[in-house]
Amino acid sequence: MFALAYYSTTKRTKEVGIRKILGARAISIVLLLTWDFLRPVLVSCLVAWPFAYLFIDMFYAGFSSQAIFSAANYILVTLVMILLAILTVVIQCARIANLNPVLSLRYE
What three-state secondary structure class fits 67? Predict the structure, then answer.
């Protein structure tokens, strides 16, 4: 996730520089880039829920005693993934958003 966030933010350095020149604040840029990165994470978690349920169900079918997995487990895992994605992306986005826009646009 860190490498993908780094690649995504360095690819959009010119866009961030233009937004800063036009008056955008660093926090609004960080929120924009974070939301763009969080959408695929949310979709992947929602797609993974049924597969995880089926895999766990098939795995426990071979045992005589079974554990019960509620929806709260899946929601907790999703919240942890979102938190990790936010922390990873915010670090990279804050670094790019606080750069001088002249430096990002000079070589483009």
Answer: coil
